[in-house]
Amino acid sequence: MATPKGAIGNGPVVRVAIGGDHDAGPELLRAARDATEDVRVVAVGPTGADSLAPLVLATQNGTTAFVPQCTVANVTTIVETLENGSLPDTAATVEHDPGATSMPTPPAAIDTTAVLGVGSRRVLGGCGWRAPASVADYRVSRDDELLAERAIDDPDAVHERVADAALRGRGRGDGSTDAPISGVWTTATETDGKPVVVVNANEADDHARADRLLLESAPLAVLDAALATAHAVDATDVLVYTNDAEALARERAQEAADALAADRDPDIPIQVVAGPDAYTAGEMTMALEAMEGNDRLEARRRPPGPDQYGLYGRPTVIHTPRTFAQVGQALADNDLGGVPGDPGTRLFTVAGDVDAPATIELPTDATLADVRGAVALDGGLKTACVGGRFGGLTRDLDVPASAAGLRGARLGTNGVIELFDESTCTVALAGQRAKLAREENCGRCVPCREGSKQLVELLRDVYDGEYQDGMLRELARTMRETSTCEFGQEASRPVTTAMESFEPEFRAHADGRCPSGSCDHVSS
Amino acid sequence: MSTDQSSTPRVPDVENPQPTMPLTEDIRPGTANDPPVETVEPDRTATLTVDGESVTVSAESTLLDATEETDTDDYVPALCSYDEHDEIGPRSECRTCMVETEEHGVVPSCSFPAQDGMTVRTDTTEASEARDVNLDLLLSNHNLRCTTCGKNGRCELQDVSIENDVVEPRYGVFDDRDAYEPLDDSSPFIQIDRNKCILCNRCVEACNDVQVEGVLRIEGSGEDTRIGFQNDAETMMDSTCVSCGHCATVCPTGALVEQGLTDAATIPLPGFTQENSIGKTVEAENDRFQPGPATPMKGDQKSESAAEPTAESPPTEDD
Questions:
Q1: Could you tell me the CATH number of the domain that includes residue A246?
Q2: Interface touch A482/B36, C-beta < 8 Å
C-alpha cells in the first residue's frame, strides 16, 4: 500500500482536520478537493481542541491561516483564494518556517485559537499538521531517520537512553504507570521467552482522550517508538490494542503500520486489534486477557506482572501511546524538559462543565492552573477531579503537572482534569464515582467487588444522617492497599479526597442539607 | 444472566507458547490466565524472617507457606486458598491473608512468592486491619443463616470467623430477602445456594482443571459476578454435570452441598429448613428422565459430538 500524501513541503496546501468528536471533516475534505485541482488538499488528524473543530488550515509561503468551525462554503472560498495566490482573511494568521514539521501555534492573544497556545505542543506537534500515516511527513520531522532504523543498529543505545532519561510511564493501563519504564524493559529482556510489545490505547473513559488523539493524529510517532522499543527488548511482535468503538484510531494506526511496513523491511509485524468498550478492558492484564480471546475479562493475579508473564505467558512490555510518544521524544535526542524526576511533558484533557473539551500538553514543571486558558468554564470553578474517573477532587489547581506533584496532592495521574462549577455537589460527585466502581468492577477480588458496594452504602448513610468518617477511611484504605489491580486501588480516591477537601459538605448532608442545592433527596 | 462483554475480543495472530491439552481446549472457565507462583530463581530455597523468626522454604513456596512454618503473632485466615491440590489456586481473591513485608508493603501471602531475605510481619496494624476488613466484607455478602446450613460446623468461613473473633461483622450480614438468589435444588446430587458463595473459584478449578468436565464457570462482573454453567444453563439439572461431587468437596462454605448432606448439620427448628430459608427454590421438573448420575444435558452433549447416537444416550420424547 502506498504511503498517503504528505502535508509538509513547498507550495500551497489546505489541511482539513478529520477525527475527534466531529463528523463534518470528511464533507469539508470532499468539498475542498472538488473545488481545486491545483492546490494540495490533505486530510490531517484532530488537534485536540474541540472548540476549533472542524478546523481548516491554509498554508502558503511560510504563512498559515487558521479557520476554526469551518463550513463547506468557507472551505470552497479558502481553496479558491489559495488558487489565486493569496491567503484567506482570518482572525489568526501565523508566520513560520516554510518547512515546519510541527504546527505553528497562534499566539494566545487571538481569542478563537488561543487553546492551541496553551502549554507546549511537543508530542502533539504533528497533530493537525502532518498527514497521520505519511511516512514522508514523519521522516522530515525526524531528520529523515526512523527511530526504529536506529534501534536496529544499536538496540542497547535505545534502552540506555530511556534509562538515562528516567522516563516514567503515563496513563492508566501502562505497565509502569508513574514508575521508570526501563525497569520493565530490563525484566522483559531477562525473562525466558520471546517478548511482545503492546500499545495499550483502550480507554473507555470518554474524558481521557489523549491516547485516541495520538493514534488518530500522529500514529507514526507512536508506532515508530513502539518498534524501536521492540528492537530494544528483542520482541517479535508489536500489538496496538484499541476500543472496538474507536474505528478511526484503529484505521489510522493500521494505515500507519502498513505505511511503515512498505517503507522498510517489516521484520517486526505490527498488528492492530480491538478489545471491548468496557472500562475494565483498559486495565493492563485485562487488556492481555481480551487479546488472548478470553470470554470474560478479569484482572490477573500479580506478582509477577506482564513484564514476566504477559500475553500468552510471554514477557510483555505494555505501554500507552502517551508513554511511547515520550519514548519517541527521548530517542529523537530532544531535550525532554520538565522536572528531572519525571522528565518530558504530560497530556491532559480538560473536560467537565466546559464549552468544549481540549487535550493540551504541559511540561512536568508547569502547574495544572495553566489548563484554565484552554477552556471556557461555565460559572466559577468549585471542584476539579484530576486523574480520570477515579481521580482526586480538589479546589486548588496550583499543583505541579509531574507524577510526584500529582501524587503528592493525592490526585490521579491519568491525564484528565474535569472542572465543575458551583452547582456540582461534591458528595454526590464522589457517590457517582463510587457507584461506577460498584457497577464496572471485574468482580474478582473482595476488596474491590464487595468494598465498592459498602462504599456506596456508607455514602447512602450520609444522606440518611450518619457520616461515619472513620469507617469510610478504613474501608477506602483497605480497598487501596489490598485490591488486585489499579481499578480497586483507585476506586475510593474520589471519596477520600472529597472527605479531605470538602468535609463540611459531608457534615451538611448528614444534617439534611446540600450546600450546592443539587441533592433534592436529602432527608431532613 | 448474560456474561458476554460488549463485543467479542479479537485474538491477534501471535505465537502462543503455552501448551494446550486437546481435552481442555473447549473449556471456558471465565477466569484469568493467572501467572504461576514461583520465584525468579528456581531450584533454590529461600530463607526469610516471619515475625522475627527465621524460616527456610523451597523456591516455589508462597509467604503463606512460610507463615505456616512458623508460630505467627497474628491469625492469618487465607480463606480462599486451598492447599491440598496443586491444580486448585492460589486464586488470591478474598484477601484475608494480607501480611506486611518490609520490601513490598502489604501483600497477599497466599500467592506472593517467598523470596530470599524477605522480612514479613503478620501483626502490624495495616495487615491485621486489611485482613479483618476483607473478612467482614465477605460476610457482608453471605447468607449467615448457619443453623439451617448443611455445612454448619464444617464450614471454613465459619471456622475463620470464629478463629478471628468476629462477633458482629462491621458491614452487617446479607439479610435483604429480596436480594437472595433462588436456591438451585434441581439436581438430585448437588444443591447450590449462591447466597453463600464467596467466589473463591475452587469449584470452577476442581471442575475444569482437575475433573476436566468443563461444567462450571465464573460469569458476570461487578456485583453480578456468580458461579454459572458453561453450557449457558440456568440450573444444575440443565448443566452438563456428571455429579462427581468435587465442587462440593472443595467448597469452603454451604454454597455447594451434596444433596444427601443438605440437612446433615442443621439445628432442628420446626418448619425452618435449608430449602425454605431464603424463600425461593428451583426444583427439578418431575418428568425429567435421569438414568444415571450425569444430567440429561451431558447425554445430549455426547450424542451431539458423536456421529451416531450412542447406546448410552438417554431416550428423548420422540423415540
A1: 3.40.50.11540
A2: no
**From the centroid of its chain, how far is CA B292?**
26
Could you tell me if A433 and A485 lie in one domain? Answer: yes
Distance from CA of B14 to the nearest CA of A (A): 7
C-alpha cell at A248: 478511526
User: Residue A434: phi, psi to the nearest 5?
Assistant: -65, -40
Contacts of residue B294, defined as CB under 8 A and 6 or more positions apart, other chains included, come to B240, B241, B242, B243
* pLDDT for the residue B288: 60
The amino acid that residue B233 corresponds to is A
Q: What is the pLDDT of residues A142-176, one digit of tens each?
A: 999 999 999 999 999 999 999 999 999 999 999 99
Q: What is the mean pLDDT of residues A435-462?
A: 97
**Could you tell me which of B193, B317, B183 has the C-alpha nearest to residue B253?**
B193
Q: What is the mean pLDDT of chain A?
A: 93
DSSP string, A376-416: PBSS-EEEEEESSTT-EEES----BSSHHHHHHTT---SSE
Chain CA centroid to CA A366, Å? 18
- Whether A8 is in a domain gets the answer no
Residue B91 with chain A: CB contacts under 8 Å: 301
Flag if B93 and A444 touch (Cβ within 8 Å): yes
In chain B, beta strands by DSSP E: 45-50, 53-58, 98-101, 105-108, 119-121, 183-185, 190-192, 216-219, 226-229, 256-258, 281-283
Domain region containing A86:
13-117
pLDDT tops 90 at residue B283: no
pLDDT above 50: residue A78: yes
Q: Is A491 on the interface with B (CB under 8 A)?
A: no
Q: Please check whether residues A144 and A289 belong to one and the same domain.
A: yes
pLDDT of residue B174: 78
Contact between B11 and A457 using a beta-carbon 8 Å cutoff: no
Rounded to 5 degrees, φ, ψ at A350 are -95, 120
B19 in reach of chain A (CB within 8 A): no
- A37: in domain: yes
In the predicted model, is pLDDT for residue A451 greater than 90? Answer: yes
pLDDT of residue B315 exceeding 60, the answer is no
A128 in a domain, yes or no? no
Of B9, B91, B130, the CB nearest to A293: B9
Instruction: Evaluate whether residue A227 is within a structural domain.
Output: yes
CB A481 within 8 A of CB B106: yes
Is A481's Cβ below 8 Å from some Cβ in B?
yes
Mean pLDDT lowest for which of A405-414, A455-464, A508-517, B4-13? Answer: B4-13
Lowest mean pLDDT among A42-56, A280-294, A379-393, B5-19: B5-19
Tell if the CB–CB gap between B223 and A438 is shorter than 8 Å.
yes
Using omega within 30 degrees of 0 as the cis cutoff, is the peptide bond preceding B90 cis?
yes
Quick one: cell of A72?
463547506
Of A315, A331, A347, the domain-final residue: A331
pLDDT digits (tens, 9 = 90+) for A80-132: 999 999 998 887 899 999 999 999 988 765 567 788 989 999 999 999 999 99
**pLDDT confidence of A395, banded at 50, 70, 90?**
very high
The number of residues making up chain B comes to: 319
Of A389, A421, A453, the residue at which a domain comes to its end is A421
| pLDDT per residue as tens digits for the range B179-214 | 889 999 999 999 999 999 999 999 999 999 999 999
Closest residue to B6, CB basis, from A278, A313, A314: A278
Q: Cell 458491614: give the residue.
A: B171
Burial per residue of B24-57, b for 16 or more beta-carbon CB atoms within 10 angstroms, e otherwise? eeebbbbbbbbbebebeeeeeebebbbbeeebeb
A398 shares a domain with A454: no
Grid-cell match 474507536, residue found:
A246
Compute the nearest-CA separation of B233 from chain A (Å).
Answer: 16
Top-confidence residue, A64 or A522: A64
The answer on A385 and A242 residing in a single domain is no
